[in-house]
Write a structure and sequence with these properties.
Blueprint: H1 3-13, E1 26-29, E2 39-42, H2 47-56, E3 60-63, H3 80-91, E4 94-97, H4 100-104, H5 109-117, E5 120-124, E6 133-140, H6 145-154, E7 168-176, E8 194-206, H7 210-220, E9 228-232, E10 244-252, H8 253-261, E11 267-271, E12 277-287, H9 292-297, E13 302-306, H10 310-319, E14 322-326, H11 328-332, H12 336-346, E15 352-354
Parallel strand pairs: 2-3, 2-15, 3-4, 12-13, 13-14
Antiparallel strand pairs: 1-4, 5-10, 6-8, 6-9, 7-8, 10-12, 11-14
Helix pairs in contact: 6-7
């Protein structure tokens, strides 16, 4: 199995196009053509993590935080970032980041937290889904429409929610005149104006698969020159966003805090009346303090995230919304066992290793 195969798998699960514009996701360091011996899963790239990957025979490391986040002008092996990149190349370890695309995607990190907490009627707290769809319309003879449709859908087009092979067709008439001596039309005679009955066949597709869908269309189409339209849409994928809000069975705030701690999440601070009833829960993986206002405005009884800011705490207290602040690591580490299981289901013979590194960076005085 090549690195590119697994990168494509991650892109299908948590589309890279969902990442925020300032982010850096996908294959960050490595060789897409390299054979994969095993996959390590961890929050951050560190020297200890790279060493452990090498020891257990994993030459692909998937992390949440990208080793290269912003554009850089130099790589110096004596500095942290340059040293990590150098060691990855020396050990032959490719580095893949699933960051805000993992936060935003349906079934990603925020949804995993909701599942673990037993939330229902979950929806995005922040409308941050990306516009990442095209409509592809192609004009094709009616007796070739099924072949063209099947070719496009086989490459991932025509998926709307839980429905596959979705398309729409309308009949019409196409006209053309091939230039004599330069064309060999599928029907008609060069130099003569021809008219032919055609269908306009339309499908929806994600922007990141447009190249292979158009390639399949051209291969299946009978014409020398294929007329098609590829139109960007403003549609956003339902269910995507950087945070979530949902409902739970009513319980006192102090009991909800214990429920969070029972998942192995380190609670660093809480704000609110221990007896406050909790029925509506907002949460955000990572440092989501800036979304506190969104949680307040949408009627959350409690907001769970890491690294809360002081003035956001004041705003929550004023509106009577409870807060649970966690540490970054134990909040975001919750997803990797789930991803390891998904990899095992898809590739039963693939070695996977969830690497638990992070809490030892900090200690209480």
């Amino acid at each position: 199995m090549k690195v590119s195969t697994l990168v494509d798998f991650f892109d299908r699960l948590y589309p890279f196009a969902l990442a925020e514009e300032w982010d850096n996701v996908g294959l960050i360091v490595g060789d897409s053509k390299a054979d994969v011996t095993g996959v390590g899963l961890c929050l951050d790239v560190t020297h200890d993590v790279l060493d452990e990957c090498a020891e257990v025979g994993c030459n692909l490391l998937v992390t949440h935080h990208p080793v290269i986040f912003r554009a850089i002008k130099r790589l110096n092996a004596s500095e942290l970032q340059g040293g990590l990149v150098a060691k990855a190349f020396q050990r032959g370890i490719s580095l893949v980041a699933l960051h805000t695309n993992l936060d935003s995607a349906v079934g990603g990190l925020n949804d995993t937290l909701c599942e673990l907490l037993g939330l229902r009627e979950v929806k995005p707290l922040v409308d941050s889904g990306r516009e990442r769809f095209y409509k592809l319309a192609v004009f094709v003879p009616a007796d070739h429409a099924d072949k063209v449709r099947e070719a496009m859908c086989a490459q991932g087009a025509g998926v709307i929610g839980d429905y596959e092979q979705c398309s729409f067709s309308t009949p019409g008439e196409g006209s053309f005149r091939g230039i004599e001596g330069r064309t060999n039309p599928f029907t008609g005679t060069p130099g003569k104006l021809e008219k032919a009955a055609e269908l306009k066949l339309e499908v929806l597709l994600r922007r990141e698969i447009a190249g292979r869908v158009v390639g399949a269309l051209l291969s299946a189409h009978p014409y020398e020159e294929v007329a098609y339209d590829l139109i960007p849409l403003h549609n956003k994928e339902a269910g995507t966003g950087l945070a979530r809000i949902g409902k739970c069975d009513e319980l006192p705030f102090e009991d909800f805090v214990r429920k969070v701690q029972g998942l192995g999440i380190l609670v660093t601070r809480v704000l609110g009346d221990p007896r406050k009833p909790v029925k509506r829960v907002a949460l955000c993986s990572g440092a989501g303090s800036d979304f506190t206002g969104a949680a307040i405005s949408q009627g959350a009884d409690v907001y769970l995230t890491a690294e809360q800011k002081h003035h956001h705490g004041l705003a929550a207290a004023h509106k009577g919304m409870a807060l649970i602040e966690t540490d970054h690591y134990t909040l975001e580490q919750q997803h990797w066992p789930k991803l390891a299981e998904l990899l095992k289901q898809q590739y039963p013979d693939l070695k996977t290793k969830v690497i638990e590194r992070g809490p030892e960076l900090w200690r209480r005085p």
